[in-house]
Structures are given as C-alpha cells and as structure tokens.
Amino acid sequence: MTIEESVSKGIMNAMKARETLRLEVLRNIKKVIIETKSMPGAPASLDDDACMKIIRKLAKQGRDAAAIFLQQGRADLHAHELEQVAVLEEFLPAQIDDEALATALREIIARVNASATDAGKVTGIANRELAGKADGKRIANKVKEMLG
Length: 148
Fold this sequence. Notes:
By secondary structure, the chain is an all-alpha fold. The chain contains seven helices and no strands. The chain has helices at 3-17, 20-37, 48-71, 75-89, 98-112, 119-129, 136-147. The radius of gyration is 18 Å and the shape is globular. The mean pLDDT is 91.
C-alpha cells in the first residue's frame, strides 16, 4: 500500500473513530498531495519518496510553529501543533540516534578527507545520504561540533 493510499484509508478510519485531530492532519496531507499533483508538469501520481518529502516538510512546519507558539506563551497552540506533528511522524521512518549519526558523519569526513573549513561540503553530502533518517539542522550542528 502506498503512502497516498494509506493516508486515504486513515482518513476513513479517523472519520469512523471520530478522531478529529487525526482527521485534520490526514486531510491536510491529502490536500498537499493533491495540490502537488495538480501543478503544471507534475506527474499524475506521486511515489512514496515524494509523499515522504511532503510529510517531512509538514512536520518541520509544525515543529517550527510549535516553537513560535511556545515563545509567545501560547501553551495550548504549542501542544496542539506537537500533537499534529506526532500524527505526521507516524508516516515517517524513525530518526537515527546520535551515536549512529556520529558514526555516519565520521565515515563521510574520512571519505572526503575533510578539515574544519569543509563543514558545508560534509553537511551537503550527509544531507543527501541521510535524507529522511536525520534532520538537516541536527546534521549541521553535529558536523560543526565534530569539525570545530
């Protein structure tokens, strides 16, 4: 079952179970997928990688919004955003832990023979190789820590 089919099935199940938060998030995913497919030159259907990219983007937007709400003292909206992000993360692969990230980065640093001035180069390679497994900001911070 593709992610798109899984989202559609999840919408039906959320409607039956009267899970309003889950239904809201799944409908939003479906809306963005439909908008992406209707863009000029876009394919008629999206593969799972494209759907994952959309869901990752929505999750990042939710985390960013939650951080802003927290800064503004809006604990209610902060909690709501984090609940939505939790539903989005059900569709994403698990993030690698710090130890596995450090190991992968050490291997990349050794492969490109990087020095302290090559942080951008290492980060770019790591972002491509670890896409979906680790957040870009987390990768960049770890690279700076390791090369700095």
